[in-house]
Design brief:
alpha+beta, paralog of FGE (formylglycine-generating enzyme), 2 domains, 4-stranded mixed β-sheet, 3-stranded antiparallel β-sheet, 5 helices, disordered C terminus
C-alpha cells in the first residue's frame, strides 16, 4: 500500500505539471495534400511543386504565441529574440525587468495579432523550440543547426533545414502551394483565396475574397479576421495583413537573402498575387513581416499537445493511478483477512 500511495502522489504531481504546461504554444495545422504536384510557371520561375504531403499553420504566429516563447527562452536575450519594435504601433509585446530576469507581456487586445519585426533568425529559433518540445528546449538545434550563439548565427547565410525537422519555416514552394494551389482540382489560382478575381481590400468581413490591404485598416488585424477568405487549403491571411518569411535561400548580386511572400496591410491587391515575391536579409527587422510554421504530415502531436489534451492526459493518469490503488487496497485487505482466518 505504501508503494501505491507513492504512485498516486507521483501521478498527482505529473497531473499538476501537465496543468502548468497548459500555456504551451498550440498550432492549428492544415494539411496540404496532392504530393508531387506540378509547379506553377511565373516570370521568375516555377513554384509550388512539393514532393510530400505536409502541414502548415492555419494562421500566422501571433503575439501571444511568441510571448510564450520569449518568457521561456529570453529571460536573458543574447540571441536578440525580442526587439523594441515588437511593442510599437504594429506590435503587441512589451518587455519588463532587467537582464537576466526579463519578462514579456502581451498588449491588451493584441494577443491574436501576428507578431512582427521578427528576424528570420528569430523565426528559425522559434521553429527549433517547437521542434524540441518547447519549455527550456534548445533554440540552436533541431530543425536548423545555428552556430555561434549570437543574434546572427555564424552560418546564418547558408543554414538549411535538417532532414529530420519536425517543425520548420515553410519553403517558398510550400508557402506558395498552401496559398495558391487547390489539391482537389490541381489548379493554381492567382490569389490566395481560391480565385483569379482580384482580392478586395476592406475592413474585416465574412465575405469571400477580401483582405487587409491598401490601407483599409492601416494596421495589422487579428489572424483569421477575414473569415470568408480562406485559401483552398484552409489557411488565412496569406494575402495582406503581414508579409511572411519563407526559408528558401536566394543569392542576388552575390548577397544572400531569404524569401518573403504575402504582401502587407498597406500593399495593393496585386502585391498578394501569385506572381509577386520579394526577398529580405535574414537579420533584418521589418516592421510588417511575420511568419508561419510548417511540419511533415502528420504534424507532431507530443511537443504541441494543447491544453485540452494535457488535461485529458493528466486526468487519465490520475484515474488509472486511483484504480490501481483501489485494486491494491482490496487485494491487501483480502490478504489480511485470509491471513487472520488461517491464524485463528
Amino acid at each position: 500500500m505504501r508503494m501505491s500511495m507513492r504512485l498516486l502522489l507521483l501521478l498527482m504531481a505529473t497531473s499538476l505539471w501537465l496543468a502548468s504546461a497548459a500555456s504551451a504554444v498550440v498550432i492549428d495545422w492544415v494539411t496540404v495534400g496532392d504530393p508531387g504536384n506540378a509547379c506553377d510557371t511565373q516570370v521568375d520561375g516555377c513554384f509550388g511543386s512539393v514532393a510530400n504531403a505536409y502541414r502548415i499553420s492555419k494562421y500566422e504566429i501571433t503575439n501571444a504565441q511568441y510571448a510564450e516563447f520569449l518568457n521561456a527562452k529570453a529571460k536573458s536575450d543574447p540571441l536578440g529574440l525580442y526587439n523594441g519594435n515588437m511593442s510599437g504601433t504594429l506590435g503587441g509585446i512589451t518587455r519588463s525587468g532587467t537582464d537576466p530576469n526579463y519578462s514579456y507581456s502581451v498588449i491588451a487586445g493584441r494577443g491574436d495579432v501576428p507578431v512582427v519585426a521578427v528576424s528570420f533568425y528569430a523565426a528559425m529559433r522559434f521553429a527549433n523550440w517547437l521542434h524540441n518540445g518547447q519549455g527550456s528546449a534548445s533554440t540552436e538545434t533541431g530543425a536548423y543547426t545555428l552556430l555561434g550563439g549570437t543574434a546572427t548565427p555564424s552560418n546564418g547565410d547558408t543554414v538549411t533545414r535538417d532532414p529530420n525537422a519536425q517543425v520548420f519555416i515553410p519553403s517558398d514552394d510550400e508557402w506558395y502551394k498552401a496559398a495558391y494551389y487547390d489539391p482537389g482540382t490541381g489548379i493554381y489560382y492567382d490569389y490566395p483565396v481560391g480565385t483569379d478575381t482580384q482580392t478586395v481590400c476592406s475592413t474585416p468581413t465574412s465575405s469571400a475574397n477580401y483582405a487587409n490591404c491598401s490601407s483599409a485598416v492601416s494596421n495589422v488585424t487579428a489572424v483569421g479576421s477575414y473569415t470568408g477568405s480562406a485559401s483552398p487549403n484552409g489557411t488565412f491571411d496569406q494575402g495582406g495583413n503581414v508579409e511572411e518569411w519563407n526559408e528558401t535561400l536566394y543569392t542576388i548580386n552575390g548577397n544572400p537573402y531569404r524569401g518573403i511572400r504575402g504582401s502587407w496591410f498597406n500593399g495593393g491587391p496585386t502585391d498578394m498575387g501569385a506572381a509577386n515575391e520579394s526577398f529580405g536579409g535574414a537579420g533584418a527587422l521589418y516592421a510588417a513581416i511575420g511568419f508561419r510554421v510548417a511540419s511533415p504530415a502528420p504534424a507532431p502531436a507530443v511537443p504541441l499537445l494543447g491544453p485540452l489534451g494535457l488535461a485529458v492526459l493528466g486526468a487519465g493518469l490520475v484515474i488509472a493511478g486511483v484504480r490501481r490503488l483501489r485494486a491494491t487496497i482490496v487485494t491487501t485487505q483480502q490478504g489480511v483477512s485470509a491471513h487472520s482466518g488461517c491464524g485463528s
